[in-house]
Structures are given as C-alpha cells and as structure tokens.
Design brief:
This protein is mainly α. The protein has helices at about 1-5, 10-30, 35-40, 45-50, 60-65, 70-80, 85-105, 105-140, 145-155, 155-195, 205-210. Helix 7 (about 85-105) runs antiparallel to helix 10 and helix 8 (about 105-140) packs antiparallel against helix 9 (about 145-155).
C-alpha cells in the first residue's frame, strides 16, 4: 500500500487529506443527525404535559432549549405564543432557520472534498504522463513496457481521487436527504404546537405517546 501511495507522488498527500476530512465529517454528521437527537419523538407530548399541569416556567423553557433542536424551536414558539398565531409561526420559522443551518454544518466542506479530490487525481495523472513523454523525448526510450509502467503510475492519483470522491458524494447526498426528512419532521411538530396553543388541536400527552409506542 505504501508503495502504491509513494508511486502517486506528492499529489497523494492532498488526496489523503481529503479522505481524512471526508471520513471525519461523515462520522460526525452521522452522530449529529440522528432523529432521537434532533427531534425526540416524545418531546412535544412532554411539553404539553407541562402546560396542562401548569409546570411551564422560565426554567423549563431554558431546559427545553438545551434538550435538542426541536426543543429550541418549541421553546421559541412557547415564548411567543401570547402574541397570536401568526407571530408564533414567524418565530418558529426563524428558529427553524437557525436549526437547519446547524444541521447543514460541514456539508459544504464535504461537497468540496467530493469535487476537488478527483481534480487532484487528474492533475497527478497529467503530470505523470507529461513526465513519461518527457523521458521519451530526452532518452528516446520507446519500450512499450516502460511506457505502460509509467502511465500506470501516473493513473494512481486518478484512481485515488475517485476512491475518495465517490463515497464523499454519496454521503453528501445522503446527509442532504436526511436533513430534508428532519426538516419535515420539525415542521410537523412545530405546527402541532401552534394548533394546540391556539386551540385548534389537542396534543397527545406523554403517557398517550408511550402507550402508542408499545
């Protein structure tokens, strides 16, 4: 493996760096974008239980903000509920924008890695092939075996770049899809809170949610 990397030349270094960055971002986002972490399924019912039992106060609001991104959105809605339905919805949308921005963290970097890794590989291949032809010009060596070996080494960086770019692209699209799903879930929970606070819908209590999940 080391010999293969060595044969690719110095351009293997940025390709390896790209692979490390892509792996680190993928692992971090896999942990961060879990449904249980972003939108705990029983949180809305628990909040409504606080409201029904007159337990909702400033401390509960602060606790709710720290629980999860959904908690932050719900806390913002509760804080603005007294101003009416439209103001409440606007505050929820503003809070959701902040949450979505946080969920998209590092994805631009992952997309950049997927874009530039094959470019590094292509540059390595071009430089390698140029070196082969330069040797032919200087030494007059036209042995097909020598030429094939030189071109094979030149293509090492191309293969390495693609091996980094393909999984990085897959993970980038996967995370975008996961975020879209999470945003829809957050919107649904936020609208349930709006309807409940404005008297249009009754939110299920935590006990009812637990019973339904058995």
């Amino acid at each position: 493996m080391f010999e293969i990397i060595k044969s690719g030349g110095w351009l293997m270094l940025p390709i390896i760096a790209c692979s490390i960055i892509a792996l680190a971002i993928s692992v971090e986002r896999l942990m961060a974008l879990r449904v249980s972490k972003i939108a705990p399924p029983q949180l809305l019912g628990e909040v409504w239980s606080w409201i029904k039992n007159n337990q909702l106060d400033a401390n509960k609001i602060r606790e709710l903000k720290q629980l999860s991104p959904l908690g932050l959105i719900l806390a913002t809605g509760l804080t603005n509920a007294r101003h009416g339905r439209e103001i409440m919805k606007e505050s929820l949308e503003e809070s959701a924008t902040v949450v979505v921005y946080g969920m998209e963290r590092y994805l631009n970097a992952l997309g950049t890695v997927a874009l530039v890794a094959p470019m590094f590989g292509l540059i390595g291949a071009i430089l390698g092939i140029m070196d082969v032809f330069n040797q032919i010009r200087l030494q007059g060596n036209t042995d097909p075996t020598v030429l094939a070996g030189g071109i094979a080494e030149a293509l090492v960086t191309t293969a390495a770049g693609l091996m980094v770019a393909i999984p990085a692209t897959i993970m980038h699209r996967f995370f975008n899809g996961r975020i879209t799903t999470l945003v829809m879930l957050l919107e649904q929970e936020a609208l349930k809170l709006v309807d409940a606070m404005q008297g249009d819908r009754k939110v299920e209590l935590k006990a009812d949610l637990l019973k339904d999940n058995r």
